[in-house]
Design brief:
Order of helices and strands: HHHHHHHHHHHH
CATH class: Mainly Alpha
Shape: globular
Strand content: under 5%
Largest sheet: none
Radius of gyration: 29 Å
Number of helices: 12
Oligomer: single chain
Helix content: over 70%
Mean pLDDT: 84
């Protein structure tokens, strides 16, 4: 009996499928090509190709020599794998400087970014025209790469950690200001109006409604920016901003690859630890 019932259901399902196919024998066509819709994509691809070809032409690189010397890269990596503890105390000292530069730049830029983000957010800005002005200013600062800011600061303040912290804080402050402004603008207006109705001033509104509602995003972006600060601080040491980057550059210039390899390993291990900690914090914040 069960077999007959199964065959009956199967036959019924086949008839339903056949009836649907007879009503609509061809599946609906999905528009793949659309000239007006795809025009920006085509313009971007063509422009990207033209700029790439022009860049390669202006670079005037000796590609044949580059291909010939490329196998040497493996030998350099192999030499760096023979770690050397020569002047290890100096390597640790410069590494500590790199972490210090990244952390202090994060703290200073975080505080300034909160202030600028609050002034740039349209829903809590004390003066409406102030929002686009600050956003334009922050966009200009972000458009200039961090090494350029560091070089400008080095020209005025001289070499050292102070220049690295100041130069790194420029770009990080602009980053935080733009991100926090967007976070604050996403806060529901009902929460802000409720606090204002209780008689709170602008500062109280910010700390009682806006910041608590955006706290998870603030924490996540801060953790992400510390990763970026650390990576940039390690590189900026090569231009005189202090840190482990100078140690790596000096070791490579003197062909002490083992010492440079150990410094790179320390940088990598710490960066991996930051990544794991950042991932953990982001997961905890989302819960």
């Amino acid at each position: 009996m069960y077999l007959d019932e199964f065959n009956f259901n199967l036959l019924l399902e086949q008839n339903l499928v056949q009836a649907r196919y007879e009503q609509n024998p061809r599946p609906p066509k999905i528009p793949v090509a659309n000239i007006k819709r795809d025009l920006p994509v085509h313009v971007f691809l063509i422009s990207f190709t033209v700029l790439t070809l022009l860049s390669l032409a202006l670079l005037n690189a000796e590609w044949f020599k580059l291909v010939q010397r490329f196998p040497r890269l493996g030998k350099v990596f192999l030499d760096m794998a023979h770690f050397s503890t020569e002047r290890f105390s100096l390597t640790l000292l410069t590494f500590t400087e790199t972490v210090t530069v990244a952390a202090l730049a994060l703290i200073y830029s975080l505080v300034l970014g909160l202030v600028l983000g609050a002034l740039a957010a349209e829903n809590i800005s004390p003066w409406k025209p102030l929002s686009p002005i600050i956003k334009s200013f922050l966009a200009f600062i972000r458009a200039v790469p961090t090494p350029v800011w560091v070089l400008l600061v080095l020209a005025s303040m001289g070499f050292g950690m102070a220049s690295g912290i100041t130069g790194l804080s420029f770009h990080a402050t602009a980053f935080f200001g733009m991100v926090f402004a967007q976070l604050f603008e996403e806060v529901p207006g009902e929460a802000i109006d409720a606090v204002r109705a209780a008689g709170a001033n602008r500062v109280q509104v910010f700390f009682s409604a806006v910041l608590p509602s955006s706290l998870s995003g603030v924490i996540a972006w801060t953790a992400l920016r510390f990763e970026t600060n650390y990576q940039e601080a390690a590189i900026l040491g090569m231009v005189g901003a202090g840190g482990v980057g100078y140690t790596i550059m000096a070791a490579m210039n003197s062909y002490k690859f083992g010492r440079a390899g150990l410094a790179v390993l320390i940088v990598f291990v710490f960066a991996l630890g930051i990544e794991l900690l950042s991932t953990y914090i982001k997961r905890r914040v989302k819960v």
